[in-house]
Batch of 2 targets.
Target 1
Amino acid sequence: MDDKETTNERLIQAGIEAFAANGFNGASTRMIAEKAGCNLAAIPYYFGGKEGLYLAVFERIAEFPNELLNPQIEAIRAFLKANERDPETALGLLKQLLSTMLELNCSHPAPHVQLITREQLNPSSAFDILYNKVIKREVNLISRLIAVITGEDNRRTTTLQAFILIGQVMMFHHGRKVIFRHLDLQDYSATDIGEIRQLITAWIDKALKPKQTDSQIRT
Amino acid sequence: MDDKETTNERLIQAGIEAFAANGFNGASTRMIAEKAGCNLAAIPYYFGGKEGLYLAVFERIAEFPNELLNPQIEAIRAFLKANERDPETALGLLKQLLSTMLELNCSHPAPHVQLITREQLNPSSAFDILYNKVIKREVNLISRLIAVITGEDNRRTTTLQAFILIGQVMMFHHGRKVIFRHLDLQDYSATDIGEIRQLITAWIDKALKPKQTDSQIRT
DNA sequence: GTCTATAGTCGGATAGAC
DNA sequence: GTCTATCCGACTATAGAC
């Protein structure tokens, strides 16, 4: 069915790029139709209008980040389901997940990501799709991992801590332009990302690692 | 000169609100003129056009956050200038600064803040004003405080750590809508903010506090 | 300086041929 | 399903009266 080359499909792809680059208001249907190599009238025909295309775009991309994060999400889910309570394992899973999120948001600046950012900042009708299909689960998983790591059982507390943690990672996406300007970068290099990952990882270790008087803590 | 009630002034105020709520494309000159209680033609007259008004708006607001943060920024500057190198004092200053930033961005969701966020995410001609007058100094101060606290003397490292730290705070602004949805809030209450501040503060303590294997060590 | 009126452009949606 | 042609509304900017 999805020949990947149907007009329908090309419009969605063009929409992703155009909305990501210019926002809903900034992207015109003419622009999108041209990018898709089809006629302007195809948008109302297939999607009922510009807004319909916008929603279709989000239905599509809502599945994208999960795909990349899926292996790790599955691992975490399995861990939590098994009701293991080993903090070290949980910490490892958490660091790995955040590391992937960093990669996803910074070194692969896919248009999807900017689109998602925009919608979070300025929710419209597409926000529900995004929240329910992408955000909710991830926040919950991180929150539960934190609970295992720290032993904190107040859900609200671990949720807020999850947001703090996510904020550390997302800063390098939201603040991308500021950071580039401040560090005189054109874009993140692999080295930059590695350095950031290392700093965040170290940070998490110090902040979350269960108090251990043990001297085996690696430096 | 600034009667606070000149047409010029009312347009800037109306512009702040309109651009903050709807973005540059989304805010129409009609809307702004109406909000300002003046004529549409006044915008080209005073500012040369919509874009000129947008720049004027940023010239104005670029001074706002500094005013609120000024006492603390001055204190930090004095501390750094005196070349004191006491980590505990630096840590206190840092926590206080971030606490104010949290307050500024979350419990006072002034339109200025959303405007600044938008421009950072999607830089236009006004980005320079913003970066030079607001962002640059703050990042540098935080970075230097971190250097004093941790003893790290690689400027690049402390800068990245500064961004991590800022990210923790800004998450509660950028992710506001997501967080409200996830925690079933209408807005942050004073209690919420207090709780967040406490968590961030504790986090900073653990992550930055000079290595001490014994919690009894205190200066 | 402030207004009305209007020019000129561009937006999204539609009708109807093919 | 895809196209052309067109409508209509909204936009920014300008001219010119007052």
Note: Confidence is low (pLDDT under 50) at residues 213-219 of chain A.
Target 2
Amino acid sequence: MKKVTIKDIAKMADVSTTTVSMVINNKANHISQDTIVRVMKVIKDTNYIPNGFARSMVTKKSHLIGLIIPDITNPYFAEMARHIEMEANAKGYNVILCNSDDEIENELKYIRLLKEKNIDGLILVSASLSLHSEVKELEANNIPVVILDRVKQYEKEHIIIFDNRKAGYMATDYLISQGHEHIACLIGPLGNDSTQERLLGHKKALLTHNYRANTERVFEGDYKVEGGYKAMKEILKTDATAVFVFNDYMAIGAYKAIYEANLSVPEDISIIGIDNLYLSSIINPQLTTIEQPAALMGEAAVKMLHQVIKGHDSYDKKACFDPKLIVRDSVKLIRE
Amino acid sequence: MKKVTIKDIAKMADVSTTTVSMVINNKANHISQDTIVRVMKVIKDTNYIPNGFARSMVTKKSHLIGLIIPDITNPYFAEMARHIEMEANAKGYNVILCNSDDEIENELKYIRLLKEKNIDGLILVSASLSLHSEVKELEANNIPVVILDRVKQYEKEHIIIFDNRKAGYMATDYLISQGHEHIACLIGPLGNDSTQERLLGHKKALLTHNYRANTERVFEGDYKVEGGYKAMKEILKTDATAVFVFNDYMAIGAYKAIYEANLSVPEDISIIGIDNLYLSSIINPQLTTIEQPAALMGEAAVKMLHQVIKGHDSYDKKACFDPKLIVRDSVKLIRE
DNA sequence: CTGAAAGCGCTAACAT
DNA sequence: ATGTTAGCGCTTTCAG
């Protein structure tokens, strides 16, 4: 079946391609109603769909945006991606999904591919600051980038962040308010900015309450279930009565370690997480956590990107979302 | 910054665009090493990246494939999507992610958009048979489609399916083998083919063992946590000692209903699921389930699609994956 | 209100 | 071993 082109339509409707083009693109202000109807009919009849390549070639717009994200399998990112896709769609874009596994080589490879695909913009969820120059280059090539989550470069423009330090403070402060004195910390990879920020907040809370902020109680995880599980096994050997797990996904792993040891949350040990995954309210006991609004952040990223693509200039060039304490059942109140 | 084109490269390297084109596309068999090196250098120096539009316009290939999936937030689909993306990438494609929420209007809208984007092929995870004519039309337009999961149209080509009937049989058979006599069924939406097939398998197992296969014990869910939770509350009012939950995601919701009722799995009630999500081995107690290999199925879909795109013809035009019983801790052995 | 024609950046015959 | 050139299908001045 030969593909029908704008020329065919023009011929069949007995008009020029210009006219057809105009009615397709809703620029038919100066075209008679008669002609419009006639052209439309031919388009319907032939099932004509304009060729995006040809179109993009002249307009320089692909209506495609790239999304580089560590791993769609992680519920936090899945939630984010879902809302990014929805918002993008509402704004007329399709999104190209790229799982980087947080490997810089993958990110670089994807950036190259996406550039070749002429994406209109990129949303980057990455822990690698090293990408800085790549981002600069993209922007120089007129491909806007918004960096989402996991950045501390407050000075940069076009970023959507979360106040990780405040989140770290909040979680720790809450644990202390419930009477906990031996608080362990199940952190993410140390090289990660979010980890550093959350840790800073944690220490500040400790110090504020005149606790010692030593490093004996911090255990490194990987922001995944497996890492939470393993680190928790170690923590169980200590005298900690509560643990601040740096994300909910690891907390799920921590739960597993705990009930495998025949212990229970929060009776034997209290847990607080960060993220407020959907799952966090489903597991038993329901997880007390600090909400990080993945959905809103994803939407904000698309909105910002859209503004940049449109060439607007009257919008906030950075957004920072605030943490919120969600009290549920995984932290025990200890009386002194 | 003016975008550098193949012409610029040609001029700078003092060759024709053809030559440049050839070295870019590794078709430089007949080009002197000397020239190649010179051209390459210019390309590196200028950071030249070919314009995908122009290229695609003549080659008719976008190296983009569409993925229409109900909801990336569902761990089963996330797993599938992850592996689809990986395999696609290995084969040189990028994937456009579309969440349909299983709504046919969304699917239709996406199909239209994707057609306009000139995707090389489409992987469709959909429950709507009604899409049949759309698929036919895509294929007529030379855009291959492989339908993944949730189909019963064994007669169609280019499908990747799972033997849902066998899965239904297996789960029920196992429950019976453990001595359960009052088995409830927490099914998915009735309109769904997978649901129907699993139900058929379930009934067959019941009949085979001389049990009565009535409908009093079947409760409809939605394949999501929420539906599992709600339906389980109802099931708890019956005399069922075991429930066959039609997917693991609902089983997670069912668990919640159970411990909210202060009951426990498997002491008070046994649960078996389908899918074998990653989470299924993490929750407490670990879920006994029937494995459905989402990752493998996703990969198989990409491989098949690739074959069709390439115009090959010596490959299996349908693949059916087999269920596998994964025994863990959520089913109690009842002695008679 | 409508049409002619240039050109977007690239590939692939076809020449040489 | 390398160059010339004709499109690919569309949008967009510029004319009328």
Note: Chain B has twelve helices and twelve strands.
